Amino acid sequence: MTREDFEYVDDQSAFDALAPIFASAPVLAVDTESDSLYRYRERVCFLQVAAGGKAYLIDTLAVRDLKPFAEACANPAQVKVLHGADYDVTCLRRDFGVAFENLFDTMVASQLVGREQLGLAALVREFYGVELDKSLTTHDWGRRPLDAKYVRYLADDVVYLEDLRSKLLAELERADAVEAATLEFRRVAESAASREPFDPEGFRRIKGARDLNQAGLSVLRELCILRDARARAEDKPAFKVLGNQTLIDVAGSLPRDVGDLRRIQGFSDFVLRKLGADVIDAVRRGLEGAHAMSLRPPQLGKRPPEEQQAVAEALRAWRKAASERDRRTTMAILPNYLLGRVAEARPRTLDELAAVPFFGEERLRRYGPEIVALTASPPPLDEARRRRRAAGARDAKNDGD
Q1: Contact criterion met (CB below 8 Å) for 198 and 208
Q2: Over the stretch 205-242, which tens digit does the pLDDT of each residue have?
Q3: Is 0.85 topped by the overall pTM?
Q4: Which own/partner pairs from 66-71 qualify as long-range (CB within 8 Å, at least 24 positions apart)?
Q5: What is the pLDDT of residues 105-151, one digit of tens each?
Q6: Torsion over CA: 347, 373, 330, 186 (sign)
Q7: Angle at 12 between CA 9 and CA 18, to 5 degrees
Q8: Nearest to residue 258, comparing CAs of 269, 249, 247?
Q9: What is the torsion angle, in degrees rounded to the nearest 10, for the CA atoms of residue 259, residue 260, residue 266 and residue 269?
């Protein structure tokens, strides 16, 4: 396949005619483009599929029934290759109900073999000597018609993936990480599709919120509620209504009137006319409710038991040592999410360890006895932390040497 072998599809009947191609291709390379920088609720705007020696650029604002493609994605006999698949998998499942079987993620594969540069552009540059134009990443993919330069960008994101899979699969085999990769691919494929609702406590995660007093936090909360309501009504991302730093500046200075807002960066004449009075009302509401604002976030769950914390600390220190000893990435040995599951389960036998989801037979054979030795009899928490700090200090010294 060359960079010129592509077809633009913006008609349902033309897409339906691709069904035999999708059904017969042993490998499909897949990517999507959404409009998250331009809408309150993002949409998948383009689906790119390379199959049968050609790339198909599908306008999913015009083509709404993806059944032929979805059937191929659900077929375990066909390989689906994506780069950084978790986002695409989530979006396609959310908007079109597409589920994936037999997925290969070229970014995950690159992580597992220890590559430092994980972007598709870096991989294409290394393996094919081609510079991909990534200056169009932030384009509004919901706009029509599409200029020719954007069509070229869409095609480039899939034309290299099938061959890139072959090269990375060889690297996984040399690193003895095929099973670890397969488990990670399966986990990504099972990613849940969801739209996160507005979080009324999300204001606490804004940079600078921790520096505010009780009144400032209360005002910040009201400002975030106002911003979300405006973003929803205008169908735009919240940051395009008012930026986080602007919210922090308002919450820190507590302006009394629209005139005070003029001294805060982000309040142009246009924004003042549009939002000034509402912002001052939000400040007033925040000050009125400040007495009820807690400086600490609500407790979302119990702190993990001390034994679980000790197991996690011990596993981190062991994993670092095992990575140096075996010359394998920590992700191949025990990825973070799996380390957390093992620490929570605290298995005392190999059978119990094998029951941890996504652990895998190869990982059990290679590292099971060492892990169970830690989880069955973990050191005290203070000792586990001391060992981890010592491992970090050794790394720092080696880096200096």
Answers
A1: no
A2: 999 999 999 999 999 999 999 999 999 999 999 999 99
A3: yes
A4: 66/15, 66/92, 66/96, 66/98, 68/15, 68/16, 68/18, 68/19, 68/22, 68/23, 69/18, 69/22, 69/98, 70/96, 70/97, 70/98, 70/99, 71/22, 71/23
A5: 999 999 999 999 999 999 999 999 999 988 888 999 999 999 988 99
A6: negative
A7: 65
A8: 269
A9: 0
